[in-house]
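Subject: complex prediction, re-run

Hi both,

The earlier run crashed halfway through, so I resubmitted it with identical inputs.
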Amino acid sequence: MEAAEPGNLAGVRHIILVLSGKGGVGKSTISTELALALRHAGKKVGILDVDLCGPSIPRMLGAQGRAVHQCDRGWAPVFLDREQSISLMSVGFLLEKPDEAVVWRGPKKNALIKQFVSDVAWGELDYLVVDTPPGTSDEHMATIEALRPYQPLGALVVTTPQAVSVGDVRRELTFCRKTGLRVMGIVENMSGFTCPHCTVSPGGCRGGEAAPGRWGPWAVLGSPPSPRSAPASSPGAAERSWPSSPGCPS
Amino acid sequence: MEEVPHDCPGADSAQAGRGASCQGCPNQRLCASGAGAAPDPAIEEIKEKMKTVKHKILVLSGKGGVGKSTFSAHLAHGLAEDENTQIALLDIDICGPSIPKIMGLEGEQYVEDNLGVMSVGFLLSSPDDAVIWRGPKKNGMIKQFLRDVDWGEVDYLIVDTPPGTSDEHLSVVQYLAAAHIDGAVIITTPQEVSLQDVRKEINFCRKVKLPIIGVVENMSGFICPKCKKESQIFPPTTGGAELMCQDLEVPLLGRVPLDPLIGKNCDKGQSFFIDAPDSPATLAYRSIIQRIQEFCNLHQSKEENLISS
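This time it finished cleanly. Structure:
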C-alpha cells in the first residue's frame, strides 16, 4: 500500500468510518456519541461528515450556522470547544442557507469529498470519525479512495433489528469486504423501547441502562455514557453506553 | 457508456470532453462535440412508454429511514384493493432496494394480479450482493426501468426513491420530464434532524418544478401495544411537519403513528392493512391515500378540461 504523503491527515492517528447500507438507523447519532465518548476519555477527536445531501452532524452538536475559515493549510475545521478537543467539517457549514438543497451528481460530490480529506487542516487528532450517508455509492467510494493512503482503522456498521435494515447492512458488509475495509463491529441501534406509561417493554429487548421512555442502548454494553446532555433530536443520548470494542485502541 | 472516469464532469456539463479527467475517456470526442448537451433520446422514448400510465407519483424524502419504502408499499396495497385499478411500484433505490422485502417478493414481480413491482433487488443473485455503482451507472439502470419495462395499462405508477437529492432523483425527474409526473409525496418524521433534510427536498422539488402533493409525517407518536397509550419517540421539538408545512406552504397529508405491527408485517412481506385493519395507523394511511387520489383526479380533470377547451 502506498505510504501517505505528508498532508492534512498526517497528524491523525486513527480513522473510523461509520457506515450502513440503510438510512435512518442512527449513523450520525452514533458518530456523534462515539466522538463525544472518545473526547470524554481524553482524546482529541475530529468528525468528518461526508453526507452531502443530508448533513446532520452540525445540528446534533449544536454547531449550525458556524462558518468555515481558511488557514494556511486549507480549511480550518469548526471547533466545538475552547480546548479544541473536538472539531468538525460538514457541507452544512458551506451552505448559504440551511434549507438549500445540495443537488449534485456523483462527480461533483466526489470532488468535494476529496477536498474534505485533503484540504481540511485537522492537525493532531487521536481519532477522526467519518459519518457517511446511507448506501454504497459515490460518496462511499470517494471517501475510501481518498482515505486509503492513511489506512483507516476500520468501519462500524450500524443497523436496526428489522429485516429491511439487516438486508441493506449485509450489502454494506460485502462493500467493506470488496473495498478492503475492516469491519470493527456491528452496532444494533433502536434495539427496544420501554413505554413510559406502563414501563413494560413491549416485546423489544430492554437493555441494561435504558431509562424509561428512552431507546435502549446498543446490543453490546460497555463504558460510561456521554456526559454531554442529549441534543433535542437525539433522545436518550445521555443514557447510552458506548461499547468498548476490543478493536478500538485506547 | 459503461465506464467513465472517476472525475467525469458529467456529459451535460460545460466541461464535458474538455476537463483534465476527460483525457483517455472513450467518449471524450463525443462530449467535446456538445452531443452530451443534446436532450437524451430516451426522454421521448419514455414519454411514449408512459402514455399508458395515467398517474405517476414519486415518494421522496431528504432523510433516510423515515418510511418511504413502507409508505410506497402501503400506498400500492391501498390503491390495489380496488381490483379494477392497475398499480405499478417501481423501486429506484439502487443501493438499498427495500421494496422486494416489504412486498414479500423473492423474484416474482406480481404481488396481486393488479399490482406489479420492479426493483434492482430482483436482479441480484444473492441477498449479500452489493450494488456498488457510481452515478452514471445508476442513471442507466433507472433509464432502463422506465424505458424497457413493459408497464402496460397502469392507473398509478408509484416510484420509491432513495434518500437524498442526487443522481437518482435528478434522473427520474429528467427522464419523466416529458411524460408528466402528477407530483411528489414527501415523507418525514417529526424531529428536526429529519425536517432539516426534508426542507431541502421541498426546495429540490421547487427547483425542478415538481408539484408537491403533500407531506406525510411518519412515526408520529408511538402506541404501546400493551397499555394503548401514546408517547413521542421522535419529539417534534421544532413544531414537527405541521409547522414546516405552514412555513413552506405545502399541504400536510396526514400523520401516521408508529405501530410495531407495521415493521413486523414489512419483515414478513405482508400488507399491514390486513393484519391491523383497525389500527390508528391504518386509518391514517387510508385518509392519506384518499387525499392523494383526490389530488390525482383533480389534476386529471384539469388536464382534460384544458384539452377539450
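The mean pLDDT of chain B is 87.

- K.
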